[in-house]
Amino acid sequence: MAASKTQGAVARMQEDRDGSCSTVGGVGYGDSKDCILEPLSLPESPGGTTTLEGSPSVPCIFCEEHFPVAEQDKLLKHMIIEHKIVIADVKLVADFQRYILYWRKRFTEQPITDFCSVIRINSTAPFEEQENYFLLCDVLPEDRILREELQKQRLREILEQQQQERNDTNFHGVCMFCNEEFLGNRSVILNHMAREHAFNIGLPDNIVNCNEFLCTLQKKLDNDWSDWEEHPASAVCLFCEKQAETIEKLYVHMEDAHEFDLLKIKSELGLNFYQQVKLVNFIRRQVHQCRCYGCHVKFKSKADLRTHMEETKHTSLLPDRKTWDQLEYYFPTYENDTLLCTLSDSESDLTAQEQNENVPIISEDTSKLYALKQSSILNQLLL
Question: Do residues 294 and 319 lie in contact, with contact meaning Cβ atoms separated by under 8 Å?
Fold first, then answer.
């Protein structure tokens, strides 16, 4: 069991390290520092959710960095990158905050190697390029006992909360369907929704954390209604942070500001839809890693890269097809890349310049309307 978990962790970390690295024609397009360890997102318009001040936080096991409880993935990423420690089966930990606090104390008392398996990455590379990662999992008896105790403690808290809600007569709630208010025990509103609106979520005595549960249901219903509203999807430029409400405006921006004509490249290279996807994902990854795909030089920032590519005209200097037409570029660099959703496989697409030209439309000659009706092919369908 210990061997299988260790091998699984090694495989996942090796994929994380090597997933975005490839070598084509002797030129390395990625190194260990360029590996992408989490889903990336392009900048979006203001209006997203923010973390409330004063929300409970969890400290890092080794340093003084703190992260909100709701953003534990950021803490896990921090510990992997900064401290080389991996926690196995995090989703099975009943109380993540208490779990972290327990090991934070224990690691100050004994060396980390007393608790964690040591995993060596790049074991075939020179010694100075090898790295050690530490795996903390329930193979360690102390960790397994801690997880079991946290589960039992969480269960006791849930059962106590459930019993308290069963006896509570001060519940106040509003029906999410008819806005009728209810006072007393929570069973009143739950029975009302089941009887009047055929919305049965189970026996009231089996529900726990009723307020949070009803709020979650209300938010999901509100989100279903909001799906009917149209929100303009902004596409982001391949080279800068410019956003455009329409893909046509984005194409014009990239051509004017960066001398990059995606429609022209598509036409000249005869790219189908999937090849366009690979090309866009390739460019996104190179720009994210601050690397010029025209000369393979890496820069300290995206601003320096953009200045270099504009001065040297490297935005239009694409590498050979075999460099970017690879299977790995089927996967988006940014999970919310709207540009990928606008790509077309149609060969009749016009360039931005052609789209701005007026196309004459010649109408049919309707002076002999009776003759047209008699000779129409639609008459054969009537038979």
Answer: yes
pLDDT at 334 over 70: yes
Gyration radius (Cα) of the chain, Å? 30
Give strand ranges (E) for 218-261. 235-236, 243-244
Token duo for residue 117: 């398996």
Query: Is pLDDT above 50 for 24?
Result: no
pLDDT-based confidence at residue 182 (cuts at 50, 70, 90): very high
Count Cβ atoms within 10 A of the Cβ of residue 45 and give its class: 0-12 exposed, 13-18 middle, 19 or more buried. exposed
Strands of the chain, DSSP E: 23-24, 27-28, 57-59, 66-68, 85-87, 117-121, 131-136, 171-174, 181-184, 235-236, 243-244
DSSP letter, residue 116: S
pTM to 2 decimal places: 0.47
Which structure tokens are listed for 313? 């005209």
Per the prediction, the chain carries an average pLDDT of: 81
Contact 260, 253 (CB under 8 A): no
